Structure formats: C-alpha cells, structure tokens
Amino acid sequence: MIVADLSPSALRARLAGAGLRFAAGPFAFRVQSPRRDVAEGIARLYAAHPLRGDDDFIDFHVAIRPGRGLRRLLRPQVRFVVDGLEPFKPLPADQAMPMLEWGLNWCIAGYANHLLMLHAAVLGRGDRAIVMPAPAGSGKSTLCAALALSGGWDLLSDELALLDPATGLLHGLARPINLKNASIPVIRSFAPGVEVCGPYLDTTKGTVALLRPPASSVAAAARPRRPAWVVFPKYVADAPARLTPMEPAEALLALADNAFNYHIQGRHGFAGLCALLDGAPAWRFEYGHLDEAIACFDELAGRTEQAA
Fold first, then answer.
1. Cis link prior to 199 (omega < 30° from 0)?
2. What's the CA gap between 10 and 19, in Å, rounded?
C-alpha cells in the first residue's frame, strides 16, 4: 500500500494516534501530529510513498506538536520532536510542513553515518546518477526540479546525496523538493499545474514551497545508482548553458566542502569521494534558462550512454 490508498480520515487518525509509518528510500519514518494541515500536506506530498507495517523497523520516530504555555494561544507555534527530544526552537504554526521536512533532513544528516552525505541534488538516468553539490542560492533546487519534471530524469534527492562508501552507489530518497523565493514562480511557470504546497512566508529561508516528487521517481528510489557525473551548478541571469571541466583535485575539495559527515567518515569518506570521481568526471555549470540547461544535461548523458 501507498499513502494515497488511505482515506483522508484514516490518514488523520493514524497521524493523531499511533503514527503514520512510511518509507522514503532506505529510511522508514513514523510521523505523529494532530494538525490537519500536516495530514493534508503529507497526503499531497507523499501520496506515492509506500506504507510500512506495525512490525516493520522504523529509523526515525518524529512528531509535529503544538506549542506550550500561553504562547500557543496568543501566537500558535509548532514543535519538532524526534525520539522525545526537541532539537529546534518552535516555529510559527503555519510553518508546520516546512518544519517536518527540515526535521527529517536533520534526522538523516545527523544519524545515518554509515553513508557519506553531501549537500547535493541527485538525479538518476537509467542505472546512472548525476550529483549536483552546491551552496544555497546557486539555483540547485530549481534546476533539480526542472530536470525531475522534464521526464528524462528520476529525482533521487534535492538536498542529500547518500553515497555508500562500501559499494560506491547512491541511494535515493525522492522526497519533496524545497523551492525558495524566486524559484517558486519559475517552477510554477515551467510546469503549470504541478503539485506544490505553500508558499510558506517569512521562514528562516525566506519564502518556501514544497514540490511533490513524481510518482515514477518514488517508485524508482529503491534502486541504487552508479554516479556518472558530478556537476556544480550556478544560476547566472541570462547566461548561456555552459559546462566547464574541473580537475579531480579541485572537485575533491569542493565535494568535501559540501559534505555533512566527511569528518566522521574519515579515510572511508576520502576513499569514497576519490572512487566517486574516478568514475564520474566533474564539471562546473552555469545556466540562465532552464530549457537550455535541460538540453545540456540530456546531451551530456547521451554522450556517456553512446560511449558505454
């Protein structure tokens, strides 16, 4: 069964009671919340995600709870709770869904240290994957969303690249894409009618919206991919799409800068990044128009497929 198989009342009952159990890539979550907007957001954003049974192992037990004290009456808030702990300060109540998304990212980034994690978007094409590390404001999520919606690429993640150093394979999550500020109208214009929750105003990241992952990407997320390309994207207004090769040593340092747990992985992380770059040439990429960017990525993938 998938989340969409539950009726709205059944979904709300699970969230308000023992919790909704579902999987995203290699992880299983149990989410609890009495809030109707959380139930509606999960129904819209996680419709294609598989449910987990009561006896299945759960990696993270999380909840979105109301605020405490008089403040909850005067200025309603929500709290993120994981295994009984509250790692964040409360947020305004209308930011419940972004808080859930950011909280799930925090859980994975903080505890899944058997994997090397990069701040990067990841998209799959066949058995291969492209890794796009980039800091905030680079246009990474906008480009990731456009590629995932173009039909030629599977969404694995827009925030967390999960590399298994032992196998060299990338694991997918296919969770909602976080769009911020100007990228929201850009994607709405690029793909009219796409399922988006929000916008949520005045968050710590500005205005954000959450884009539902394609159902095909959710179904394909369980299949690990071999990294074939590493691309560091940067949006430059009206710039032509251009790929520039990077030296492996430069790319290695840039990947390490974008890693969440490189310091924990130690030599295994170093070896994992070296192996990644041995099989995946690195490029810098500037773009100013999404259609040109997609065509450039399709051409890059086509050259690799022809060479294989």
1. yes
2. 11
The continuous run of DSSP H or E covering 22 comes out as strand 20-24
65-115 confidence digits (pLDDT tens): 998 876 666 789 999 999 989 999 999 999 999 999 999 999 999 999 999
Digit-coded pLDDT (tens) for 169-215: 999 999 999 999 999 999 999 999 899 999 999 999 999 999 999 99
The strand pairing partners of 65, in sequence order, are: 79
Residue 46: phi, psi to the nearest 5?
Answer: -115, 25
Residue 181 backbone zone (phi > 0: left; psi -120 to 50: alpha; other: beta): left
Q: Kindly give the residue spans of alpha helices, DSSP state H, lying in 117-259.
A: 140-150, 183-190, 215-220, 248-257
Q: Which run of H or of E encompasses 282?
A: strand 282-287
Q: Which residues contact 221 (CB under 8 A, 6 or more apart)?
A: 24, 25, 154, 155, 156, 172, 173, 174
> Hey, what are 90's tokens?
């409360």
Give the chain's length. Answer: 308
- Residue 159: the pLDDT is 92
- Alpha carbon distance, N-terminus to C-terminus of the chain: 37
Q: List pLDDT tens digits, range 39-64.
A: 999 999 999 999 999 999 999 999 99
Provide the CA 115 distance to its chain's centre, in angstroms: 15
Cβ contact 102:159 at 8 Å: no
